[in-house]
């Protein structure tokens, strides 16, 4: 499965901790992330991460294109709801596209844990049939 991960700057430490905690699940899948987030995940976990450009210079657009091609099976998106910064990824467009293309998306740690554990159990295996 292809897992997309994106995080606002204020949530980068949380995404690192999440990826460390679930490294044994993530290692069995392909992980895609915007540049800085991907680099931090790689440094913290030693996982291979397919990295886009940094979000502020086009990585969020590359991420969206992958969603629109339905090449992601799961999206984890940690953001700061109290902050609106044009340099940060556009949360509303990303979640809207995930809804449009029926891609499970988590925007907080609780939902991300449910989805990643469901992934490990095989609950998202139906997504494999969508690419045939």
Our measurement of the CA-to-CA distance between the termini, rounded to an integer number of angstroms, reads: 13 Å
**What count of domains describes the coordinates?**
1
CATH class: Alpha Beta
Physical arrangement of strands within the biggest beta sheet: 3-2-1-4-5
Do you know the CATH architecture? 3-Layer(aba) Sandwich
The helicity comes to 40-55%
Main sheet? 5 strands, parallel
Helical stretch tally: 7
CATH superfamily: Methylglyoxal synthase-like domain
Shape: globular
Query: How much of the polypeptide forms β-strand, as a percent range?
Result: 15-25%
Structural class: alpha/beta
Average of per-residue pLDDT values: 90
Radius of gyration: 13 Å
Uncertain regions spanning at least 5 consecutive residues? none
Task: Please give the number of β-strands.
Answer: 5
Tell me what you see in this structure.
It is a single chain. With about 130 residues, the protein is of the alpha/beta class. It has a single domain, classed as Rossmann fold (3-Layer(aba) Sandwich). Helices cover about 50% and strands about 15% of the residues. It is built from seven helices and five strands. The chain has helices at about 10-20, 25, 35-45, 60-70, 90-100, 110-120, 125-130, and strands spanning about 1-5, 30-35, 50, 75-80, 105. It has a five-stranded parallel sheet, sandwiched between helices. α1 (about 10-20) packs across α3 (about 35-45) and α4 (about 60-70) runs parallel beside α5. The radius of gyration is 13 Å and the shape is globular. The two termini are about 15 Å apart. The relative contact order is 0.19. The model has no long low-confidence stretch (mean pLDDT about 90).
